[in-house]
Design a protein that fits this description.
The protein is mainly alpha-helical. Helix 10 packs across helix 12 and helix 13 crosses helix 14.
């Protein structure tokens, strides 16, 4: 595949998300995922996706304030960006709703959409979240308070400028695992399904593996298919926890999820709920 074609594909946010789905949900390698997306793009003109089609897949397209926007000017005068967010993630969201209830599902959606928005260069307000989730701003404020009480960063607009960058919920989930929380405990605390937790641990381990191979931050992010911000968070977390106290947990991950041995069967045998 030529560099020109690859650059064109990766410059489009929606196409990047398609690549991510193929890699995380279907476990294709990055090269294969890009080849599939390039073919689909040419056949179905995916760079002009109908918003109604995205909605049927649980996605929403919305315009939000750029994360580079300063405070002070009127909202209509601020730079804006279009972002695509995952409102519903199918079976995984349904599992959280069924086991933990609607508030836990909504809080999971909030964390996910805030991360996705940041990765696309935007920031969500509490009012944006209320509008997307069709609840009152008061409900969103209550959810955000609960998430913060549980130790999660909730970087809505205003907060990001007041406190600066903070780690994503994905990094928080990996941190909980390294601190010897069980899958059941992490699922309850983080409002995430075991399948989501497994994906985050797999990606974290891929980042660690590539760092130990000597790849740069940019190379790691590109190879794994994540943002440089998340790759940097994972590397910093690894450096923080790569000490004798947590070495067994790091070693477990490198054994279970290394590129040579990461299979569903080994995962099931090696991880206890």
């Amino acid at each position: 595949m030529s560099t020109t074609v690859l650059d064109r594909i990766e410059s489009k946010t929606k196409i990047q998300q398609f690549i991510q789905i193929l890699m995380t949900e279907f476990e294709f390698c990055r090269k294969t995922a890009i080849a599939i997306v390039e073919t689909a793009t040419n056949v179905f003109n995916l760079d002009k996706i109908d918003p109604s089609l995205l909605a049927s897949k649980g996605k929403v397209v919305t315009t939000v304030v750029s994360d580079n926007a300063k405070h002070g000017p009127r909202l209509e005068d601020l730079p804006m960006v279009e972002v695509t967010l995952t409102k519903h993630a199918g079976q995984e969201d349904e599992e959280i709703r069924r086991k933990q209830g609607k508030p836990a599902l909504r809080q999971r959606q909030i964390l996910r959409m805030l991360d996705e928005c940041q990765e696309q260069g935007g920031t969500l307000t509490q009012e944006d979240l209320a509008d997307i989730l069709k609840v009152s701003p008061r409900t969103i404020r209550r959810d955000i308070k609960q998430l913060r009480d549980d130790g999660f960063s909730v970087p809505t607009r205003g907060i990001t400028h007041d406190i600066g960058p903070s780690i994503s919920h994905k990094t928080k989930i990996v941190k909980l695992y390294l601190e010897r929380k069980t899958y059941s405990e992490i699922s309850r605390i983080a409002r995430h399904s075991p399948a989501s937790i497994k994906r985050y641990l797999t990606t974290f381990t891929q980042v660690v593996f590539l760092k130990n191979k000597g790849l740069s931050l940019k190379e790691i992010a590109y190879t794994v298919g994540i943002s440089k911000t998340l790759a940097k968070e994972y590397i910093e977390l690894y450096l923080q926890y790569n000490i004798p106290e947590y070495k067994d947990k790091i070693d477990d991950l490198l054994t279970l999820f290394s590129p040579q041995t990461s299979s569903t069967d080994e995962f099931k045998k090696g991880v206890k709920n």
